[in-house]
Amino acid sequence: MEPVENKARIYNSRNSRLMRETFMGSMGYKKLFYRAITIASFLAVWQLAANYYNSEFMMPSPWTTMVTFAAILHDPEVIANLLLTLKRVLTGFCYALLIGIPLGFLMGYSKIAMQLFDPLIDSLRQVPIMAWVPLTIVWFGLGDGPTVFLIAFAGVFPIIMNTIAGVQNISKDYYHAARSMGAKPWSVFAHVIVPASLPDILIGSRVAIGLGWMSVI
Amino acid sequence: MNLSVENLSKVFINDGNVHTVLSGVNFTVQEGQFVTLLGPSGCGKTTLLTIIAGFQSATEGSVLLNGQQVSTPGPDRGFVFQNYALFPWMTVRENILYPMKRRKMPRQQREQRLQELLTMAQLEGKEGLYPQQLSGGMKQRTAFIRALAGSPEVLLMDEPLGAVDFQMRQILQEELESIWLKDQTTVLMVTHDVDEAIYLSDRVIVMSAQQGNILEDLAIKLHRPRNRNGEKYIKYKVHLMNLLKKALHKEPEAPGKELELCLA
Ligand SMILES: Nc1ncnc2c1ncn2[C@@H]1O[C@H](COP(=O)(O)OP(=O)(O)OP(=O)(O)O)[C@@H](O)[C@H]1O
Ligand SMILES: [Mg+2]
What we know:
The structure holds two protein chains of two kinds.
Chain A: H1 4-10, H2 16-24, H3 29-53, H4 62-73, H5 76-109, H6 111-126, H7 132-140, H8 144-168, H9 172-180, H10 185-214
Helix pairs in contact in A: 1-2, 5-6, 5-8, 5-10, 7-8, 8-10
Chain B: E1 2-14, E2 17-30, E3 34-38, H1 45-53, E4 60-65, E5 68-69, E6 77-80, H2 92-102, H3 107-120, H4 136-149, E7 154-158, H5 166-183, E8 186-191, H6 194-200, E9 203-207, E10 214-219, H7 231-249, H8 257-263
Parallel strand pairs in B: 3-8, 3-9, 6-7, 7-8
Antiparallel strand pairs in B: 1-2, 1-4, 4-5, 9-10
Helix pairs in contact in B: 2-3, 2-4, 3-4, 4-5, 6-7
Bound molecules: adenosine-5'-triphosphate and magnesium ion (MG).
Organism (chain A): Sporotomaculum syntrophicum
Pfam families (chain A): BPD_transp_1
Domain ABC transmembrane type-1 (chain A): 82-217
């Protein structure tokens, strides 16, 4: 199989442009220009607000914040913590992928799997993430465990949901075409199901990473 | 190669309503023929063709390929879809190689066949493009040679030219014919276009709107390439159009359908 970017680039589905821009990092000049305007106006509003309050405590100016930020970046302890958080998010995200993608494939493809897992997943999904905190501390003790669990937990649902949607949206014609060209189940999976649902899986993964950062605490 | 459809019936049951689409359909297709199933819209052509392909099952009767009953899709029956169903995540080259790889053709042979097919369809230099970068006609030709690539015994096509406009359609018919003349695979094609049926086929099987009854099995004895304005050609056309009108007559009048036939 080819590298993922190669495939993402050629999709003409509704997600393709989004993916091309975010995953390929190929921002046009126009885009850069608009982004610069956004940042500039944001800084301007911030500065105005700081002038208005005129208090370092309530509303520090952008400049002060930036200087402080730069100073913090030289603090080894902060760097260490940052790396630790990054590690936790990535570990949690990997778990979410490892559980979410196979489950999503299964549920999207097989009605039986869907009926088996859907009630469970739908109810788990409703539990507020904070409610898990005490339980996870009991299960995993203090340390990385609870945080990684919560990150994985938050991320697994968007991955499952998007993978299911991706698989269910595959036109029957593709399955029929593959089979009438002699494809065995493995080839149908590897050459039809996976590439056809990849854009949706990537969307789910993006949402999962975002949720992961938010559940770091 | 010998494909025969024996006593084939298909009944759909929706909310207790029994709908017999096909009932006791029989016909045989011989090696090397280009056969067309012609019939009014909704008479069950697609249903029949997809049962032969193994995409759905028959209620009764059977499909025999070389005497063997077939009921699931297989590489012995290639299929060209109305919307082509080219894999958008594969290039033209990968799409065409796909059936050859599935049939475990050695690499060297694969490459050679690929080049042959590309030449046949005048797609040299396009093998690196993705389907969405192709024009309608190029997509159609790619779909056609992809279905041929695995060397099926018979090629099934469901209105392969249904998605294009009138003029493009005539051009594509001619292109399709020229590829077919080089390849000579047996073809069973579905269409509701009288002109298309006569231009391409050695034999036209006319289905009625009633349970897919076969109204006529007509051999088209004209030299290729056919002259659409020839006297005999027009005679075939008038004959088939009258037949189709008769096929429709017992049905409740469907506006637009008659018009479509007249234009064809
Ligand atoms: N899955 C299904 N369930 C119920 N009825 C169906 C189903 N598939 C087809 N039919 C019915 O069978 C009849 C024949 O359909 P089919 O698609 O085979 O017609 P067709 O000859 O290919 O028409 P067209 O030329 O418009 O493509 C139609 O009346 C249709 O409503
Ligand atoms: Mg049809």
